[in-house]
Every structure is written in structure tokens, then in C-alpha cells.
Amino acid sequence: MPRQRQPRQRRNPREQDWGAKANRQYEEIKSSQLDRGASNDRAEEIAARTVNKNRARSGQADQASRVSLEGESPQRRGGRRSGRGYGPSGGPTKAQLYNDAKKRNIRGRSTMTKKQLQNALGR
What we know:
It contains six helices and no strands.
């Protein structure tokens, strides 16, 4: 008979000794996620992951993955890697390409088509 997996026990974030700033950040992110319609469990998970990644980047966490240390901060990334597909065609949308072109200060981007933006960005 196959064994049933036990649900993973999450520590209550309020019981963790993160410090005042991290606790405020946790509460703010959780509140924001709840306002967006996320379930309480999902809001807690997102808030805890964000705070833990920030703590790892600043050297305060016990463990840190390579991505946590080398990747963008959660605030800057803003979900950019979520989904990976970037829309129905599997590639980035025109809006995403435009934003990338804006960051790279590509001239004439406002009149470019999606294909022209891809070429200008070297994709």
C-alpha cells in the first residue's frame, strides 16, 4: 500500500525571529496579496518567500540558494519570471518587449512593431 504524503508543516512566520523590519515587510506583502484576492495560505507563502529571499540576499538567512543571491530582488523582478511562457505565443508580449527596449533606451521604440522590437533587442 503506497504511503500517503504528510502535509508539509510550515512554521508560523510570526514565531520566526526575523526582526522588526522583516516582520513589517511580511505583514505589508501579506496584506497586499490578500487585497489582490489571494487566499490567506497563498498570501502567507508569497510574503514569507519574499522576506526570506531578501534576508538571504543581505546575509541574514541560514541558507541561501544561488538564485536568491545572484538573481534580481523580488521587488524589482515583480513576477517577471512567473509563467515563463509570456503569453499565448510562448514569447514575450509586445508590451514586455517595449518595456525591455525602454530600459535599454532604444530610440524609435514607440513606433516599432513587435517584430521590430524583437530585432532591436536581438531576440
